């Protein structure tokens, strides 16, 4: 029989797995059953589950259950209709679009800004100061990302959002009189169109920003959207994708668990089968409420390849805030913090193959002596 402290550590571990940022009120099912994983090379063959605990052998099985095999277009239309319908019932506020976690807004913006600054310094001469920069904010909602970040770096931002009352709120929030910037930095166009139907203007954008929305697209529409959107980039332009990640966790020796950059020693988990039940690897998680899928890193990378995109840079947003949540819970009877959040990762994607950074060492030694004949 497991001790009370064992239950405490297992509960803390489960809460920690959830407490790494999904901005929506939804709880990962308790980690009691096993979810099989087919290995690193299998990628999209990874198993997954939905918000009610149903398991799927792979993504293909899940999508077949959700949108059919293509023979009935009404089933896929129903998927998208219900997804938009969910957000139509949410208030047009920061707290609304972040699922009741409006307080994470500042942390989110700071993380995004640090990533964007790095990309500007590496991709644009003079960090873009001498060019007219244009961005596309996909799944823009009420214009939260544009208002708090993009308008400070881009001269023009276009917004695309399928939920009409969100977009109307964005128009109001981004009206020129409400922004602390000149007319040289402004929101220009507002498109009330779902991403699966949207085609960006050819060659208009330096950056296409996609945050917390791509999970609503089925795989085939994900690929089709990025293929269309590639034509919308200027030469040297790039995508930024910021999304929740279905994280993989696995046991190491002596009960040590690796969670991204953090290792926690679970000293009181005494039964190996309990640890095995607790530590699963998940390729995706389906949210039945809002019709979205949280994909794993491997799942995303498989799709990027099918889109003809190259991964330029990525960043795991796991740091002191999340570690602090876990420590706080262990010292405060596990109350007071939300337990419904996923990990978040940022990707920069390009249409060109990333070049080796100037001055970087070659993987092959340059001074290998020639064979004397």
Structure write-up:
The protein is of the alpha/beta class and 373 residues long. It contains eleven helices and 13 strands. Helix 1 (4-18) packs antiparallel against helix 11 (320-331).
Structural key phrases:
disordered C terminus; alpha/beta; 11 helices; single chain; 4-stranded mixed β-sheet; 373 residues
Helix-strand topology string: HEEHHHHEHEHEEHEEEHEEHEHE
Strand content: 15-25%
Strand count, sense and closure of the main sheet?
Answer: 7 strands, mixed
Radius of gyration: 22 Å
> How helix-rich are the residues, as a percent range?
25-40%
Count of helical regions:
11
Structural class: alpha/beta
How would you sum up this structure in a few lines?
The chain has eleven helices and 13 strands. The strands form three sheets. Strands 5-4-3-6-7-13-12 form a seven-stranded mixed sheet, with helices on both faces. It has a four-stranded mixed sheet with strand order 2-1-10-11. It is an alpha/beta fold.
